[in-house]
Amino acid sequence: MSAFTPRRPLRALFVHQNFPGQYAHLAPALAQRQGVQVWGVGEKEGYAAPGVRYVAYGAPRGAGEQTHRYLRPFEAATRRGQHIANRLVQLRDKEGLNPDIIVCHPGWGDGLFLKDVFPRARTLFYWEFYYNSHGQDLGFDPAQQVSLDDAARVRTLNATQLVSLQGADWGVSPTRWQRSRYPAWARARITCLHEGVDTARCAPRAGAVFRTPEGREFRQGDPVISYVARNLEPYRGFPSFMKALALMQRERPDLHAVVVGGNEVSYGRKPEGAPDWKTKVLAEMEGQLDLSRIHFTGRVAHDALHDLFRVTRAHVYLTYPFVLSWSMLESMACGAVVVGSDTPPVAEAITHGETGLLVPFFEPERLAATVLGVLADPEGHRHLGEAARASVIARYDLARICLPRQLDLVERVAAGLDPAPDPEP
Fold this sequence. Notes:
Number of domains: 2
Number of strands: 15
Order of helices and strands: EHEEHEHEHHEHHEEEEHEHEHEHEHEHHH
Mean pLDDT: 95
Number of helices: 15
Strand content: 15-25%
Structural class: alpha/beta
CATH class of the largest domain: Alpha Beta
Distance between the termini: 16 Å
Radius of gyration: 22 Å
Strand order of the largest sheet: 3-2-1-4-5-6-7
Helix content: 25-40%
CATH architecture of the largest domain: 3-Layer(aba) Sandwich
CATH superfamily of the largest domain: Glycogen Phosphorylase B
């Protein structure tokens, strides 16, 4: 696909609550193009990249306690959107900010009023996840009964996105399944385009070593498996993994597991009767686990995470039908043999028996048996890791596929042209 060349220098504004977020590669790459002016706006201080002028807007006020429970997320989003709009008015009037295109993740309310500040600017929004009361995360756990209250609350959660859709000229979703969650009328103006995987950085490397915080070292060939999530919680299958790990430890007294993730709650509910899910699960499984062979690292540096993917015998990735984690694709790019949950986001990226292995989310016995099979015959499963890397290169490679398409999309939307045809099947 040939890149579209804009008629005049481009002025772009990126807006993301946790800037740069999904724009970590796109914003700096756009800024390196001749004559292009790039601004970045986010909540926190500290971002810097060549060519990107970054402005932090600070934390806005949240919702009030007297607000209806369903409406608190929308009130918080409205306050954030208003806070950002006022800051952008200052930048417009005092510093001449006047973008041709605004690229924004609107999930927290950042995109609500951008068109009111810059009515002539074109907008390209990142549509990550549309909430539904069936067919995805809510009610996925068979033990969870979806009440009318749950369904109504989830329906109302889409208020921020629905208002933001009015101000979006075009949109992007990272996977076909995430795009499919949006209403048909919205999907007509959403391109499926992943932010990309740096397959040069995320790659196999002989001699890799992963060191735990307590100083334990693991190398390629060691009987070690891995589990990674932003936070250890049910949405990412932490309880299921720990139940499977107890079964695996009985069969393999030499097995070690590295568990990466924090103890907060990113998605879903907080546990009852415990400060976090790790504490709750370990209390429920007291006496069933050999904790000396489980290495809880908390969150680790990105490069260290890649070393873990290089040395692991099997990487376990479980998720509800929800947003697909970057970590899974990066583990594939590093050549890891992934044993994942047979849920739509994972099945879109992994073909069972070809680029990884898929198991039912709520069957720890199947998970344990599958991982033990990989451990027992690493050579017989090596082709899965090799094919996984080849698949990521073919579908999600940052330099060759995703970033050029992102740059082309930004410039076409800015010029008021229809985006190039989507090559995704």
